[in-house]
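User: Let's play a game. I give you a shape written as tokens, and you guess the letters that built it. Ready? Here's round one.
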């Protein structure tokens, strides 16, 4: 088997080395050390551009919010803002990072299913654009914070349309039985609307739902659009109030493996737009402002993680393990979700992938694997092993388990290479220890 280049920013150079954004990953590993997160900033801009272009082309008024839980550090907010994106944040930490990067607070949306009063005050006093309120307790707290700070808040309500996105159970977030949002089906969402409308300092702007993650199928989004548009109509009928924003969340799929295809984002957004327009006609209502919150599909393919191969162990009659100098601390997704990844030996990228092995991390537990039972080039000690499509939910979900320092993150563009996040040091590890 030959190496498959999963995305258009990946390549193989004359030396047979794997490249990202035209840069030789073997050289980058040498220069910056491993483990190393690479992020192709040009690819991020390109993906953002596809969304913003489609937003203009197919919708009367649409906004693209980068779901920054997928990847959060200062320069990614700068990049996102310059690419015309707003930011979906889920914690004061993400808000703080965005603000430190100079992100316009009005373009920040504050999500989360259990915002504390203090967090709400923090967001309000920093002038963030919208709260996406998950429940009635938050509405009470937002109103109380508004009174205390003499401010007004723009609020979007998170509701659950009751759709099973047929995806991995742990990342299915739009069903009725969900810790997120308030169900439409049970009538509780309408109560949520009424309660919000009764608050003097809150402007109810719209509704939000998120039907899952890593979806290649337009159907869950179309079903969600139908249910949400009907709800907008019902609110108008029952409360005489027009909800102006329809936020359909994120969840667009990304190619992690050769057997998957690249999602046609334009097709997805075009279909969703047609469905929204059809509903507007059906219910005689104006087209709302539509928001999408892609995270993974903006940054995943832009990322590649580089490791150095240590031990290669073959258990006679069983299997082989390739041990690398990172693992679940920098990428917990296989350990958590059995998430698929494509691995290759970067300095032998032009060679056949005929060696079957598990790629094992360095943490002290047997579940610390990056991938099991993959075919990869036969490695030698000291080779660079690349794990592809790691731009989303890797750095943002990394930990210091086993007191490992988090890797550096290097950003690549055609015209420059820059550090996005410095490699952690031992001093960083003990910074808060008394
Ligand atoms: N909006 C909301 C409200 C969300 O809950 C999420 C993801 C997104 C947007 C972005 O979804 P995306 O476009 O990135 O699929 N840690 C898991 C993913 C959890 C996603 C949770 N919500 C993983 O590593 O796969």
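Assistant: Ready! My guess for every position:
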């Amino acid at each position: 088997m030959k190496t498959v280049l999963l995305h258009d920013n990946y390549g193989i150079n004359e030396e047979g080395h794997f490249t990202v954004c035209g840069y030789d990953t073997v050289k980058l590993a040498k220069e910056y050390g491993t483990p190393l997160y690479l992020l192709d900033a040009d690819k991020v801009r390109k993906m953002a551009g596809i969304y913003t272009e489609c937003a203009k082309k197919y919708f009367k008024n649409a906004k693209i919010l980068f779901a920054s839980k997928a990847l959060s550090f200062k320069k990614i907010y700068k990049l996102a803002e310059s690419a015309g994106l707003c930011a979906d944040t889920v914690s004061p930490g993400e808000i703080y990072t965005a603000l430190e990067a100079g992100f316009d607070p009005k373009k920040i949306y504050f999500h989360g299913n259990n915002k504390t009063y203090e967090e709400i005050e923090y967001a309000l006093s920093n002038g963030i654009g919208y709260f996406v309120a998950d429940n009635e307790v938050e509405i009470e707290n937002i109103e109380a914070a508004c009174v205390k700070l003499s401010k007004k808040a723009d609020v979007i309500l998170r509701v659950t349309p009751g759709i099973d996105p047929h995806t991995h159970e742990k990342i299915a977030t739009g069903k009725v039985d969900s810790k997120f949002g308030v169900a439409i089906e049970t009538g509780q969402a309408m109560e949520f609307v009424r309660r919000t409308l009764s608050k003097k300092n809150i402007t109810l702007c719209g509704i939000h739902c998120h039907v899952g993650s890593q979806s290649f199928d337009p159907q869950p989004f179309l079903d969600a659009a139908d249910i949400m548009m009907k709800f907008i109509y019902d609110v108008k009928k029952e409360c005489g109030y027009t909800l102006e924003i329809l936020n359909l969340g994120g969840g667009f799929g990304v190619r992690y493996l050769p057997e998957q295809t690249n999602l046609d984002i334009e097709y997805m957004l075009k279909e969703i737009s047609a469905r929204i327009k059809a509903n507007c006609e059906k219910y005689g209502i104006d087209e709302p402002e539509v928001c999408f919150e892609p995270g993974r599909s903006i940054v995943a393919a832009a990322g590649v993680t580089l490791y150095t191969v240590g031990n290669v162990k073959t258990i006679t009659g069983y299997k082989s393990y390739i041990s690398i100098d990172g693992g679940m601390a920098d990428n917990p997704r296989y350990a958590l979700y059995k998430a698929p990844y494509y691995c290759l030996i970067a300095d032998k990228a032009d060679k056949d992938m005929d060696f079957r092995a598990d790629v094992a991390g360095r943490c002290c537990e047997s579940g610390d694997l990056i991938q099991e039972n993959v075919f990869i080039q036969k490695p030698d000690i000291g080779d660079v092993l690349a794990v592809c499509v790691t731009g989303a939910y890797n750095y943002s979900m990394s930990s210091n388990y086993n007191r490992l320092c988090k890797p550096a993150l290097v950003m690549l563009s055609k015209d420059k290479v820059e550090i996005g996040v410095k490699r952690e040091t031992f001093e960083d590890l003990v910074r808060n220890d008394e």
